[in-house]
Amino acid sequence: MTLITLEQFGNNIKEMMKLCKGRKLLKRLNDSPMIYKIHATNEGYSHTNRALTDVYIDPNFHPIINTTAGDQLASTTRQLAHELGHLTGVKDTPDPGDRMDNVNTWENPIMEPIEGYDRTTYDTIIPMPGVTSTPDE
User: Fold this and answer.
1) Residue-wise burial string across 86-123, b where 16 or more C-beta atoms lie within 10 A, e elsewhere
2) If you placed Cys at 5, which of 38, 40, 64, 88 could pair as Cys (CB 3.0 to 4.6 Å)?
3) How distant is the alpha carbon of residue 46 from its chain centre?
4) First CA to last CA distance, the chain
5) Can you give the residue ranges of every domain in the chain?
6) How many other CB atoms are there within 10 angstroms of residue 12's CB atom?
7) How does pLDDT run across 18-42, given as a tens digit for each residue?
8) Pick from 70, 66, 78, 76: which is nearest to 121 by CA?
C-alpha cells in the first residue's frame, strides 16, 4: 500500500504513530497492495468511499460525540483514526451485527491514550451549529 496524505494531516499521522495501536493500523495499511489516499474536504463531514480506498476529512468539522468524559468535539486525529480503520474493512453500528466495531477496534484504542477518553456511542453524533452531519458511507 501507498498511503498518500496531504501535508496538513502529517501531524495527525505522527500523533497516531506514537501509539502501538496507531502504528499497527498504519503498518497494516502500508503492507497492503492497495493505494490509499487521504483528501481534505470542506464537505462538513468525514467519510470513506465505498471502495475503501479513499478517506475524506474535513479539518474544520468537529461534531460533538458522546464519550466517557461527556460530550466532546471529535478531533481531526480521532476522525482520521476512525476513517482509516474503515480501510481495514471494519464497519460501524448502522451495519447489523457491527456494534461500534470500528470505534472499539481502532478509534478508541488509538485515541484514549491521546485524549483521555473513549467514544461511547456511534449513532448519536450531534452536529455543530450551522453544520450538517452525514453518517459515514
Assistant:
1) bbeebbbbeeeeeebbbbebbbbbbbbebbeebbeebe
2) 38
3) 8
4) 22
5) 2-115
6) 21
7) 999 999 999 999 999 999 988 888 8
8) 66
